[in-house]
Amino acid sequence: MEQRGDHAVVLGASMGGLLAARVLSEFYRRVTVVERDVLPTEPVNRRGVPQGRLIHSCLARLVQVLDELFPGFSDDLLVRGVSRWDDGDLAKLDWSFGGHQLVREGRSVDAPRILSPSRPMLEYAVRQRVRSIADVTFREGQDVVGLTATPDRRRVTGVRVVNRADDSTETLTADVVVDATGRGSRTPVFLEELGYDRPREDEVVVQLAYACQLLRIPAGVIKEHMIARFPAPGRPRMFAMIGYEDDTYMVGAGTMAGVVPPRDHAEILDYAAELAPRRVVEAIRAAEPIGDVVHHRVPSNRWRRYDKLHRLPEGLLVVGDAVCSFNPIYGQGMTIAAIEATVLRDCLRHGGSGLTRRFTRLAAKHVRVAWQTAVASDLALPEVPGPRPVSIRISNACLEPVMIASETDPVVAGQFMRVVGMLDSPLRLLRPPILLRILRAQHRRAGGHSVHEGSDGRLVASA
Question: Beta-carbon neighbour count of residue 245 at 10 Å?
């Protein structure tokens, strides 16, 4: 592969940072990852990823990119005991979106495979792969305190870092700097110090608050691979449960729009009693807790619009949550970081000239799809404040018949799952064969038959 420079520096050993480092190693002689934490040598949580203690799901597109960048990655996860759903059996998925429960009978041949590693296991596996790349070096226990630039400030030339152990300062020169430091990124401040504008921020306030706990449940007790009850209009509450490796399950329960979330294990059980099948509640009640209940709050979806800035210094890229942080209940964050890594690879394949502008604009197109999906879902809840543009209202109106059809039609449900997994564009729901099935479901509904969730989580038809 033709080299684009001597040295690339990545700020943050987050998922976005690790994947960026993997791509950059193809095009730069050396890659340095600067991380404020001392990284663990086992699949355990670390301070810099507090959300690692919370419930996570791997969207299908994320796993696809990981297999592309690290051949055999999925097989490695399976060897480590990671759970999976790959037989299309819809009885093993218990998903409800906006009050519509996806069909739980039959099989879907089109639905994507789902792998469910815990967040510490996933990051550990990726980190091991990146550490094995000879030209990638990790600088741990270091804070980034500023950017360096050419005298005319048109190009970033490196970063200033401080060693947390002894407060010594060092400048790392670089041909390109990638900020993957997450939602708390200081790049807007660094840009201002160089005489540039801060990016504007698009924001939708959701006031998400939730509680999670890791449990051990004997194999075979829980039949479902995943249970997910997303908020619905009039019910801004949610519950989810995912099986991880070693017979562990993560349960999560929470609220949006400022409603008080569960405080402890007993209140998580109350949420489960409201939103999950009775047998699942009993399994949670009898489970062995692994650690305490962990709480998390996310005030908003926030998109820093670097793509809208008229001026940006060359040699600076921003990825992952440092650009856009989503409502985490949709699981889009790591997947967008993975997609951005593929965009970076494609941009570098076409040369190094104008990299910052090309990457920023192309990455924004993918961010926009995820943003519109997340924001439309949030604004479908009347409890979430904010304007409802015509585009959002149309999007939600078009999605409603899709969800109605997904209650009974495995083919529509499978296509919807591919869109949710970010494998397919939402436009795939408009293909004639899918539209025909959606229209048939509408016709059956108009004929006086409806489908709703029963108390045991299965579908109940009524006239």
Answer: 16
Residues sharing a CB contact under 8 Å with residue 173, sequence separation 6 or more, in sequence order = 7, 148, 157, 158
Spatial CA neighbour of 15 closest among 225, 319, 256: 319
- Can you tell me the distance from the alpha carbon of 161 to that of 164, in angstroms, rounded to the nearest whole number? 9
Report the interhelical angle of 278-286 vs 265-275 (nearest 10°): 160
CA distances to 29, 43, 211, 372 from 306, in Å: 28, 34, 33, 17
Note the pLDDT tens digit of each residue in 349-396: 999 899 999 999 999 999 999 999 999 999 999 999 999 999 999 999
**Tokens 């997947």 label which residue?**
335
Query: Which pairing describes strands 316-318 and 100-101: parallel, antiparallel, or unpaired?
Result: unpaired
Torsion sign (Cα): 310, 348, 180, 165: negative
pLDDT tens-digit readout, 113-166: 999 999 999 999 999 999 999 999 999 999 999 999 999 999 999 999 999 999
Question: What is the CB-side half-sphere exposure of residue 204 using CA atoms within 13 A?
Answer: 26
Supply 56's token pair. Answer: 């996570």
d(Cα 177, Cα 232) in Å, to the nearest integer? Answer: 42
Is 439 in a helix, a strand, or coil? helix
CA atoms within 13 A on the CB side of 249: 28
116 close to 243: Cβ distance less than 8 angstroms: yes
Structure tokens at 272: 């489960």
- Which amino acid is present at 118? S
**Residues in contact with 386: Cβ distance below 8 Å, sequence separation at least 6, in sequence order:** 204, 205, 379
Whether the CB-CB separation of 321 and 333 falls below 8 Å is answered with yes
**Strand (E) or helix (H) holding 95:** strand 93-97
- Single pTM value for the model: 0.93
